[in-house]
Amino acid sequence: MIKKYKQMTIDALESLSLTDKEALNELGERLFYKKEYQKSLEYFKKSAILGNDMAINNLGVLYDRNKNYKKAGEYYLMAINKKCSFAYNNLGNLYEDIYQDYEKAKELYSKCFKETENTEALICIAKLYSNYYSDDEKAKKYLEKAMKLGNVEARHILERHFK
Description:
CATH class of the domain at 2-84: Mainly Alpha
Number of helices: 11
Order of helices and strands: HHHHHHHHHHH
CATH topology of the domain at 2-84: Serine Threonine Protein Phosphatase 5, Tetratricopeptide repeat
Largest sheet: none
Radius of gyration: 17 Å
CATH superfamily of the domain at 2-84: Tetratricopeptide repeat domain
CATH architecture of the domain at 2-84: Alpha Horseshoe
Mean pLDDT: 91
Distance between the termini: 41 Å
């Protein structure tokens, strides 16, 4: 069902019922990428009110992009409470890149993998070990684990950076 929205124009999406949480979120995403942040915010909020967990995460991304890190963190936490795997990693990125709290970032990435089995979290942990802890051996172990679980990106990173 969501895939069909990807094929629709913005006008076609806007003509859908305003109770369609996936269409509202898709509109928000399209407008976000067009840098129409105020309209994007409106659609994400409508979708979130209807129970779309990804829209809650996307609100966090919107605030993050606009450097309102406190508000971004609040929305990421709301999405995490609904087990949105993207939100764990987004909040982890916030702690890593903005607050430079690498232990908190690693904790969030680990929790993401443990609770949602999202292998992107293993890649985030590997990057932490490589970039901030200077421990390429541990980084490789996390990438190998992600690769064994089917993450193609992990294989590419291993091939490019750890030959």
